[in-house]
Amino acid sequence: MAAAFAVDPDVTRARTLPSAFYLDPAIHLQTRERVFARTWQWLGGLGDVDRPGSLSPREMLPGHLDEPLLLARDAAGELRCLSNVCTHRGNILVRGPCRAEQIRCSYHSRRFDLGGRMTFMPGFEQAEDFPGASDHLPRVAMTEFAGQAFASLAPAAPFEAFFGDIGARLAWLPFDSLRHDPARDRDFEVAAHWALYVENYLEGLHIPFLHPALNQVLDMERYHYHLGRYASLQLALARDGDAAFELPAGSPDHGQRVAAYYWWVFPNLMLNFYPWGLSLNVVQPLAPDRTRVAFRAWVLDAGRLGSGAGAELDQVEREDEEAVESVQRGLRSRLYRSGRYSPSHEHGVHHFHRLLCEFLAEPAVGT
Ligand code: FES
Ligand SMILES: [Fe+2]
Questions:
Q1: What is the reported pLDDT for 366?
Q2: Which of 48, 106, 196, 234 could form a disulfide with 324 if both were Cys (CB 3.0 to 4.6 A apart)?
Q3: Residue 319 CA, ligand 2 centroid: distance in Å
Q4: Rounded to the nearest whole angstrom, what is the distance from the C-alpha of residue 106 to the centroid of ligand 1?
């Protein structure tokens, strides 16, 4: 039985999701199949599959979906995302990045071409209707954006519906010049439900109280929220004299001193663009009360690192973690059930909760 949640469409009247959503292990599993399996998930960079004949195994959303996938670029240069599970008895096919002319299962030697078609299988001479469609490797929807791969097992909507607003608003940004800086990569573990981490990200209401240093460089009087269908933007303007983008005339934000574009894509991805570059955060649920957040950074202008809204990310992260861990403990209270939204600062949280209700009401993948 699927849990049903409802959040009033009118933010001025609505109540937040009940604490049961965050505490119930059955709801956590339902969310995995109904939300995470139907949205676009980050698979990492494409550096090791840039040449024809390259294979790179990827785990989709490690710790939660754990779907074994395989990026394969065929001899003609076409890149596909395939299942990395052998269609015979389920062995994992490719264990590490490599170059090959075919994919060969190490268990009973079934072979596939780099497009996923089964080409050879010993011992099956007498099998009827073999090979059939189910003997080829399933192909998974995949798109490249900002040099990164994103895939979805059963997309509720096309990639564009989730990411289109970002590309359109930042069309001027030289995405090809972003350089990964591994020294800035971090993985944080937080003792809280993944949605609490996301909600905290989606509102600026807490900034003056929780992040005094960040509050010094952002102009909270001019902090804007833009809600899309499956994504939202928090546009933070710089205080006078603090680091801001130099926006070209073609930008819809030209003439404003933008300190940061905080984009969130439903359900668990954040793309934070600062004048120095991009900080990507992927929220990875591990258990109902345990979450890992992967931070990855790409630098555009190294000279601007260390200034403005994108300067003290580790400090801000610690302050946020402390808050969401405290909320996690509070939600276990018998005396708390749900709260209300700030109509001026929490409509992003409301939008997120409405999407969760929408997805939880849909059938899961494979049912
Ligand atoms: S599991 Fe792959 S050939 Fe048997
Ligand atoms: Fe925060």
A1: 59
A2: 196
A3: 7
A4: 7
Q: Take atom 1 of ligand 1 and give the residue whose Cα is closest.
A: 89
Cα-to-centroid distance, 120 and ligand 1 (Å)? 11
Tokens at residue 87, please? 């269609």
For 143-187, write each residue's pLDDT tens digit: 999 999 999 999 999 999 999 999 999 999 999 999 999 999 999
User: pLDDT value at position 335?
Assistant: 98
Write the single-letter amino acid at 314. D
Mutate to test the pocket of ligand 1, among 82, 84, 87, 89 (most ligand atoms within 8 A of CB): 89
Closest CA to 49 of 184, 153, 142: 142
Q: Which ligand ends up closest to the CA of 123?
A: 1
Give mean pLDDT, residues 314-318: 90
Instruction: Look at the alpha carbons of 163, 41, 283, 9 in this order and tell me if their dihedral is positive or negative.
Output: positive
The SS3 of residue 310 is helix
Q: Is the pLDDT of residue 44 over 80?
A: yes
Whole-structure pTM over 0.90, yes or no? yes
Q: Reduced to 3 states, what is the DSSP secondary structure of residue 221?
A: strand
For the chain, the first-to-last Cα distance in angstroms comes to: 13
